[in-house]
Design brief:
This protein is of the alpha/beta class. The chain is built from 29 helices and 31 strands. Strands 5-4-17-16-15-6 form a six-stranded mixed beta sheet. Strands 24-30-27-29-28-31 form a six-stranded mixed barrel. It has a five-stranded parallel beta sheet with strand order 11-8-7-13-14. Helix 9 (163-176) runs parallel beside helix 26 (547-558), helix 9 (163-176) crosses helix 28 and helix 10 (190-200) crosses helix 20 (371-384). The chain is globular and about 70 Å long.
């Protein structure tokens, strides 16, 4: 199959220009004009992701030691502009609108009201948020927490909270008496934490930024770089220009891995020419990654392109894996992957000819029933060639939110075995709880059945991000306590009842002044480097508090005093929190304060990168998947597999606008992308309205109505649509077996003609 034959069908709507370039610039300028940005915001962007500046609140991609003039991408600029808007959401706004009315607003319009300015409490008699004071809020929340069973409460954290905030948050939870500390990784890369921990002994990837300067092959699986981590395109482009090959596996042809124009290159911008990225772009079936990798491994074994010496020294259970590969037929591999043998053989030959290979993946691997097996297969492939633990090699999960990886590093985890409880006990003179806490799936079930009585949300939009939203939505109002720490209004803040509090905090780009002066915070990027961040913009309101100050305020009002627990001292000087992090994790955070603003961040280390395998066997673990497909169950007759997607104009549940420029979709998010042959078979035309219903026999109706169908080049039998709008179709029980990560990349649905838009 030629590259032209693999290209997009010109008869269908699509974006035919490179990622980046003038399209990115125009998009940023559009959002800047809409939010009426000031010169100070431009200065903030100039300092973004640079030593001594503030770290972006968008993606977690690495920050180079020698940054570009503009070390931010289109989505990073949108995030900062969104944070620093002039618009405000204060007591006057809430006096005009009941929560019943606000529940009818769309997600974009809720957040577009502007920055929250005052602490608020919910008044059920008027169905409104009303202004309160910080002391009143802390006292009331603390009293309610003291009256609840700690095990019935949940402390959720979004991925943007700093290391300092996250450490205090987990300490508060454990001093209070629970490990119910789910975070946004539960919904995206928890599968990574489980799979990599069991196979290579580390719960994170092994790559550093320098590896991308030395590899000669990158294998991409289920990662949309152009939308989700655009700054990654810079090292990819440089790698391509020096001769590195790129092979991409993705059901949808994403422009970021097809072509890129560097907006910081005058030559590229003026010539309007981009750099072709992928040498091969293979549109496999959703969940077909296990089979595709199996096919690659099968050919490598057939031609003897295996590093037997490395396997003998470092591998475990290779014989069982090899036998499984030999037993897997090419017919089964082709059927499960949706790819012909010739394509997989071609990739295998490229792998065999490469000396240094990096495997890169996103939620296209993690969000499946057998997502752990998909990651395990990628690890198998890399281990076969000794491509872990050498410069220019490794496995690289691309994390989403800016500090979601770092939060896990400093103790935000429902799994007590991942936390040094002994050190916490020594430092703070208490017995930390040792029982396993709730995952996101457990929390949602607990909200529905009433066993969860209290919820604190540290950022994010939990109620909108979860599966089975419609089942959970009415249950939120029945909680005894619902505390939301936030910067802007969102859906989670209006699905509440008596005992609800809305507490506004600073954004990362704003000045955080405490008793000892301006404070810095820190976060960890996808490549395990720690970066300091210093905000300099004036706060949106004089009533805002920092996240550490809010956590400490609630904790002081909840817990009895302890001489070892010095909330006021810690909030007064964040360097003291970093001292605590270093004391708790001495090997990873040595000289933390001294290295806070090291250019490019400081590396916290990775045992697998040193080929020190912290696994049960003491070696790198080869694994056999349960099936050639990650779906769990093959779709039956008339059933489509739905892939939920992020648009170019959003970040997680934050919707900046209604365009998806990189897919050629404009003006609406209520769309379904569908193969043209499937459309023809069902009698659909472009712009027809369709309804989607989850195919499940659990007695629960899950429907999404009046979505416009768009012809789009993706494999037959599969459709795409946007989250969070389509999260309602994901059953709570439809998740990765080992990690309980929602299987949002493989939802079985029926599609029927709709009568049209509904009110």
């Amino acid at each position: 199959m030629s590259r032209e034959e693999r290209g997009q069908d010109p008869t269908t709507p699509f974006y035919d220009r490179p990622t980046g370039g003038w399209g990115s610039l125009k998009s940023v300028l559009k959002h800047a004009a809409k939010d009426r940005i000031r010169l100070g915001v431009v200065e903030t962007l100039r300092r973004q992701n640079k030593p001594g500046g503030h770290m972006c609140t968008s993606c977690a991609w690495a920050k180079p030691p020698s940054p570009h003039l503009a070390e931010f991408c289109e989505n990073g600029a949108k995030a900062t502009i969104w944070d620093l808007t002039r618009d405000r959401c204060g007591p006057d706004f809430f006096a005009r609108h009941t929560l019943a009315e606000l529940r009818t607003w769309c997600d974009h319009d809720l957040e577009a009201v502007g920055r929250l300015t005052h602490p608020m409490r919910y008044d059920p008699s008027s169905d409104r948020y009303v202004e309160t004071t910080w002391p009143e809020a802390f006292k009331a929340i603390g009293a309610k927490l003291r009256g609840l069973d700690p095990k019935s409460t949940v402390f959720y954290a979004s991925g943007r909270a700093s290391l300092e905030t996250s450490y205090l948050y987990q300490l508060f939870a454990r001093l209070y008496g629970h490990n119910n500390l789910p975070d946004s990784s539960n919904m995206c890369h928890e599968t990574t934490s489980v799979a990599l921990k069991s196979t290579i002994g580390e719960a994170v990837g092994t790559c550093v930024l320098d590896d991308f300067d030395h590899c000669d092959l990158m294998l991409f699986f289920g990662q949309n770089t152009g939308t989700n981590s655009p700054r990654f395109l810079h090292p990819i482009q440089q790698a391509v220009k020096r001769g590195c090959k790129i092979v991409t596996f993705n059901p949808i042809r994403e422009r970021g891995l097809v072509e890129f124009t560097n907006p910081q290159s005058p030559t590229e911008m003026l010539s309007r020419r981009g750099t072709p990225i992928s040498d091969l772009y293979l549109q496999l079936r959703p969940g077909g990654d296990i089979a595709a990798i199996a096919g690659i491994c099968k050919h490598l074994l057939e031609i003897g392109a295996v590093d037997r010496d490395f396997i003998a020294e470092h591998g475990h259970d290779f014989d069982a894996f090899e036998a499984w590969i030999h037993a897997s037929s090419w017919d089964d591999i082709e059927a499960a992957s949706g790819l012909p043998r010739t394509d997989l053989v071609e990739v295998a030959e490229i792998v065999a000819a490469s000396q240094r290979v990096i495997g890169i993946y996103g939620m296209g691997l993690t969000q499946h029933v057998h997502g752990s097996d998909s990651i395990g297969m990628l690890v198998n492939l890399l281990l076969m060639g000794g491509h872990i633990g050498r410069p220019g090699t490794g496995i690289c999960p691309v994390r989403g939110h800016s500090n979601v990886q770092g939060q896990r590093t400093v103790g935000i985890s429902e799994k007590p075995e991942l936390v040094p409880l002994d050190r916490l006990s020594e430092l703070f003179a208490f017995d930390p709880p040792e029982d396993t806490g709730m995952t996101t799936v457990d929390v949602v079930q607990g909200v529905i059945d009433g066993t969860v009585r209290g919820f604190i949300g540290l950022g994010g939009n939990f109620a909108r991000a979860i599966p089975d939203q419609h089942q959970a939505d009415p249950a939120w109002a029945r909680l005894d306590l619902n505390v939301q720490i936030a910067t802007k209004l969102n859906r989670s803040h209006v699905l509440v009842g008596d005992g609800a509090w809305l507490l506004p905090c600073l954004v990362r780009a704003e000045r955080d002044r405490q008793r000892t002066g301006p404070q810095a915070v820190s976060m960890e990027d996808s490549l395990s480097h720690i970066h300091g961040s210093m905000g300099r913009r004036p706060p949106a309101s004089r009533h805002l508090l920092s996240e550490p100050a809010i956590i400490a305020g609630i904790a002081k009002a909840t817990l009895p005093p302890k001489p070892q627990v010095k909330w006021d001292d810690w909030v007064g000087d964040y360097a003291r929190i970093r001292d605590l992090i270093e004391a708790t994790y001495p090997d990873q955070f040595r000289d933390f304060n001294d290295r806070l603003f090291q250019a490019g961040g400081f590396y916290r280390g990775n045992s697998a990168r040193r080929r020190d395998w912290q696994t049960d066997s003491g070696k790198a673990q080869f694994t056999k998947p349960q099936s050639l497909s990650a779906l769990g169950e093959e779709p039956g007759q008339g059933i489509f597999t739905l892939i939920t997607l992020r648009s170019n104009d959003q970040f997680n549940t934050t919707i900046y606008g209604y365009d998806d420029r990189l897919r050629g979709v404009h003006g609406s998010r209520m769309v379904v992308l569908m193969n043209k042959d499937d459309m023809k078979r069902l009698g659909f035309k472009d712009q027809d309205f369709v309804d989607l219903e989850t195919n499940a026999d659990d007695g629960v109706e899950r429907r999404a109505t009046a979505f416009r169908v768009h012809s789009y080049p993706l494999p037959k039998g599969n459709v795409g649509g946007y989250y969070p709008e389509l999260n309602k179709l994901v059953p709570l029980w439809h998740h990765a077996k080992e990690s309980e990560c929602p299987a949002a990349k493989s939802v079985p649905v029926r599609i029927t003609r709709s009568t049209g838009p509904v009110a």
